[in-house]
Amino acid sequence: MEKMNKTIIIVNNLDNVSKLQETILQYPDSKIFSLNYFTHNKLIKNSIEHEIGDNYLTNIDKNIIDTQTIETASNWYLNNNFKNSLMFDGINLASLIEMELFDYFSKVYKTVLTIIRIIEKEKPTILVDMTDFGDLIQNLCNQKKIEYIQIHDIRHASTYFDKINIKSNVGPLPLSVTVSKNNYQKTKNFVEKITKQFLKLNQNFNSNQKCILLLDFNTIEYNLLLKELSNSSKNIILLNQRRPAVWNLESYNIIRKLGSNIISLNDFNQKIENKIKQEKQQKKNELEAMWNNNLIFNKIFAIENYSIWNSIKDSFTKMCNTRFLDSVERLMLLQQLFTKYDISVILEWAETAPHEKEVVHVAKRYGKKIVMLQHGVPPSGDVWGKAGRFFSFFSGPLNSDKQVVWGGITKEYAIKCGHNSENVISVGSPRHDKFFQAKKINSKGMILLATTGVPEFFAETSTTNDYLKFNNFIREVCRVVKNLKDKKLVIKPHPQPDFVNNIIDLIKEIDPQIEIVFDTDLVELINSCEMLITFNNSTIALESMILDKPTISLQTDKWAEESEIVRKHGLVSISKLEDIEPSIHSILKDDVFKFNILKNSDNFIQKYYTNRGSASTFLAQFLENF
Q1: How many CB atoms lie within 10 A of CB 425?
Q2: What is the pTM of this model?
Q3: CB of 409 within 8 A of CB of 494?
Q4: For a pLDDT cut of 70, what percent of the chain falls above it?
């Protein structure tokens, strides 16, 4: 009896649904596989039956992906055959983007291993490829005697850092717009130039004074810190390379009133513009020659002895060339900055990001002191230890001279992770002074859901099912609150980009009448709610607890359940869908239950924060004397 052909279609980053539908008509008995949540979601919306590809990954596979990701992101650039081509100003340019490469390779290796496992398990006779990994898949098919058919018009997925997401409320309408990084940067540079020239900022700069340099600080969020620093004997300089220091009337008034100074690296461009062009061209030539080492890169970029180099070469080299040449320019401009200004200390909060890494590198060459400020709740599960170098969570080594933390619990965690106790200073949280100073209001009627997104840090936490679990948690909260008499649900999305997990689309799908807020005073918003619900112990949970609101954290990942805030019962920790409704009802109807939650929350806040309500004063004094 003749063996039946078994056809599978593997789909990834699908734009052209009609092309897939045509392919299905050609192969009516085919089995279709999606490689990520976003493809799965598009297939669902188009009623295309399919299998979820990453369901074929085992726990061992996920560990392989994580291990390979960490190894590649932190070591690929150390190869002696081309290490010198990556050097500039004494630093390896690739080391500056480790965080982005961690995200990039995590997705790449997860996709590749999913493809390998699908082919191994399904054993097809025909494979129709609708992915951007054609070279890899074709090689696999050749080895296994599988007929290979490639359908083109498949786009290469852009990286997380190629896009900028801008959120705003226009009247009652929540708007979320995603633009390219290049377009955003051009607009930002133009706005900063106009702001400084026409609004006459930087009038208070005294060239004879030393300076305190703040990197990428939100001027509204850190208003009280800027106010305290305005009393300093030093110039206060803001260098915001990612988001503008002034973006609305409130932020402008803060800068004008407090006398802070805004600078841009573009301010130093004219003097060395030709030199920058020369250095970038030379580095570009070196990079182009380096990328031709195909034999070496085939060995470096491989998983389970399958090379992925030819599949990622275009996207990877394009990303690296852009990032490296940008770094060359910024490193040269930073030298001009440190030559012109007498900077005594630098305050930053995201040390593993490329812009901060560049500043830290140049600053150390000029003998400047660097202080890193805790900016959020660091996840403390054991899983974070192996990837600590990619995040400013204290789970890995840092290059700053001192690390300022919110209190004793974070300090203990930092010391446990190997940090020098003398360098970890408990000062408190300047961004939360206004929360501690605010009058607490006992409001009724509104339940606030502060969403985050699926934490795509590890293979185990970024599968299609993880996204579906996250969505189901949101759907369940919406369902429960809708059935509560006299209760209103309001959604406050996390500042992270919506393309990670588009909350707006999901909420519109669930109930278009649910209110979504972006631009708002968090103190007022939280004070106006009766309870707050968030995910994975997000920092907004602490802000809710400070304002004496009962708080629920929906835990989508195991590491979140290991957090100190959960161990101390500072909030209601929920990891099962069926526990959401009874927990909400208990808070609303059981006074003893609610009282105990608030008591535990207050005890935790007392231990977690030092200098509650006055951290800005203490930090300003510390910077003044450091």
Answers
A1: 18
A2: 0.92
A3: no
A4: 91
